[in-house]
Please model this.
Amino acid sequence: MKKWLLPVLLAALFVVLGGLLHTEGLRSIDRSIGDFFYGLRNDSITPAVKAISELGTTTGFVVVLGIALIWTLLVLRNGRYAFWLTISLAGGWLLNKVLKALYTRERPDMWDSLVVPDGYSFPSGNAMISVAFFGVIALLLLRSGRVGNRIWAVVVLLIILLIGVSRLYLGVHYASDIVGGFLAGAVIAELCAWGAVGRNRI
Model:
């Protein structure tokens, strides 16, 4: 039962957040956080933020998946890792489409968008799929027991955080969209990491 506690808790938090989307309290928080990141905009850092955001797009995911598959299949010779990494990416993408259609939250219109968004706003696809996919990689590294792998896991987790923050800076998401994406993606990452690890280590 303890094994299921974390994903169940994450899923419950996501449902609670989804139920608060149209409350004035959450809207006020979203506005305040959005205004903060809007105030940080600077022409000198915008290109870098856009580049970070690209890591959370289809192109970025496909490139990383290709590298991960080469590593897991040719170097680690572990088809189980390759399978569950693919499932995490496909599952994150599919579930995000379903959740967006369920909540139908419109994109923010309080700030100028620096990129052209696609589809509804909640939960953030970039944030959710990043956690679902990159999160599995981070969990496998953390659970390997090797110090070097744990350092790489921290790097991967930082990339996930930066992808989420980049979407706020670009003005295409509310903060609650990012948090919702992180929560939903973490459920998928945890489940897929279970499937990938079994009794094995990296």
About this structure: The two ends are 25 Å apart (CA to CA).
